[in-house]
Amino acid sequence: MNVFDGQEAAAWFRKTFADLRSEVGKVIVGQDDVVESVLVCLAANGHVLLEGMPGLGKTLLVRTVSECLGLDFSRIQFTPDMMPADVTGTNVLASSESGQRAFEFRKGPIFANLVLADEINRATPKTQSALLEAMQERSVTVGGVRHELIEPFLVMATQNPIEQEGTYPLPEAQLDRFFFKLVVPYPTKAELAEVIERTTGNVEGKASVVAHGEDVLKLRQIVREVPVSKEVLDFALAIVVGTHPEGEGACPFATEYARYGSSPRGAQSIVTAAKIFGLLEGRFNASKEDVKKAALPSLRHRVILNYGAEGANVSPERLIKEVVSFAESRDRDPIKV
Questions:
Q1: 3-state class of 205 per DSSP?
Q2: What's the pLDDT score for residue 30?
Q3: Do 246 and 277 form a contact (C-beta atoms < 8 A)?
Q4: E strand or H helix at 147, and its extent?
Q5: Mean pLDDT over all residues of the chain?
Q6: Strand locations in 190-267, DSSP E?
Q7: b/e code 14-25 from CB counts within 10 Å (16+ = b)
Q8: Would 93 be classed as within a structural domain?
Q9: How confident is the model over 215-272, as pLDDT tens digits?
Q10: Same domain, 214 and 236
Q11: Beta 89-95 vs 101-107: how paired, if at all?
Q12: Do 184 and 240 share a domain, yes or no?
């Protein structure tokens, strides 16, 4: 199949995505929006930050996605005493069969297709920064030597929002490397009942391989070929620009409650995710509705609120919704500049 044959490519994309979502659903109970968003990040070649209380299946979700794709999975449990070498690997003195000794590189857990950075905010900034090069450059440098990571490569990090003691908030530069930030909700009563039945009974869901690494790379290739009209792009840019309190086209709500707005990566995330949402609807294009759907997970971790927002109990989610509404109103205004 020629992946650039418009509707045919969209149909293949939608079927592959649906197969993955269905297979993950055999193991993960509920969390439909979270599962879809994680797969969107996979197709977009973007890392994902999962935030939620313990026991909500964040680790299981990441492991299940790797099983459905037959990819290498690695888990890094972050703790305050971890060092960067525990993530990237290190050079060790090894002996050959002839008895000669030389330094050789022993790969760390970062060398996998899907890497779970569990409770990433428990590690010190020095160790957190070990992920930064890997997430951005798809490589790590140890002892002055650059080591390429294997593709597809994706970091899925988790953090617990209710425990603050002994944690180190992620710096803005690292938060900006995450394509989406997803808030994992507590299950409903019916979903919780099914979880208990699966985990305490004899029936246990198991995922099978329904796609491979080559399919992930093809998904990403299709996404890059999806066109975006000028009107849709302008709408996405208006949302991002609207988060900047002192920028051109700033939303009045952001002017009052935002300290800093989104980086350009926020616009990249919105447009890329909008393309994927369009493909999932059977279209080989992105719409303004797709942009609106992508705005919240793309921007909630990229805007910094001021002290006034804290006093007024304004959350990043509320600010982004206000910015989207403002951008919509300007989009409908025939005399806007």
A1: coil
A2: 77
A3: no
A4: strand 145-148
A5: 85
A6: 258-260
A7: eebbeebbebbb
A8: no
A9: 999 999 999 999 999 999 999 999 999 999 887 888 999 999 999 999 999 999 999 9
A10: no
A11: antiparallel
A12: no
